[in-house]
Amino acid sequence: MIKSNIGKLIGLIVGFLILCLLIWASVVLGLTKVTTQMVIDSFNQFDGSNEHIIIHDTRIPRALIAAAVGASLAIAGTIMQGLTNNPLASPSLFGINAGASFFVVLGISFFGVTSLYSFTWLAFLGAFASSIIVYILGSMGREGLTPIKITLSGAAMAALFSSLTQGMLTLNERALDQVLFWLAGSVQGRSMDILIAVLPYILIGWLSALIIGKQMNVLTMGEDVAKGLGQKTIVVKLLGAIIVVFLAGSSVAVAGPIGFIGIVIPHISRWIVGKDYRWVIPYSGLLGATLLLMADIGARYLIMPAEVPVGVMTAFIGVPFFIYIARRGINE
Predict the structure, then answer these.
(1) N or C: which end of the chain has fewer CB within 10 A?
(2) What SS3 class is residue 250?
């Protein structure tokens, strides 16, 4: 664990440099051979060649989308784990991704929605609805909100929304063709337009998460202690929930439901810098972007010339880690 603030700052700088290296690797690596010089020439001397078109229309948007989605999911998971005091909390496990996906598929199947902006708002609506339902179910009973109850509520809602989504796709072949690969979680074939459409919400989510880091530290001491120190805990929780909806909703709108990043990365961040959310949140963003970029690069080579959806790759990485955390006990 890095204890000094100087060491943590140096770690952030090193992490950012590694992230830049992976973005470069994502642009040059793949089925079509691309060199660094080709990338430079595509900006300075664009000639309309196949390689230059692939760089501009496919590789660069894909790399930036993977970085943005990975960072967003990791930060959303970090905020959720802090708000619920639950080490298993994440947008995928708590049904937020599944709810956002359900609303998108609902819009495609019954309302003929095709625009990027409509996808974004449907994903936000689904993320918000599932968050509210899970919170209400997890708060029922004499003991109120507990880690085990909200985990079970989230798992139940994730299963429900996933079942409803699959049922709609079974009845609507056109919608199935449109969203089957998207539902597996993928950044392949995404255009820069869809990233630009959700970028304002992502940036608001990132900045807001950094701002509430200090308040998250107080909240994790316990709600009674936080109230005793004068914190308006309901305001912090509400802001945290809005951040999660913005980040998870944007991510699902762009790349579909990609799981496990929101579970794995916050634990790695806390292992590196401790429990101070002023550092955990930026570290989670960098590490989340790094993990998804690495997974996406690996997905290109696993069964080349075909590709594995990146959501499958993150599942391979995340499932063993999830089992490890679950075995330690969510009440630890």
Answers:
(1) C
(2) helix
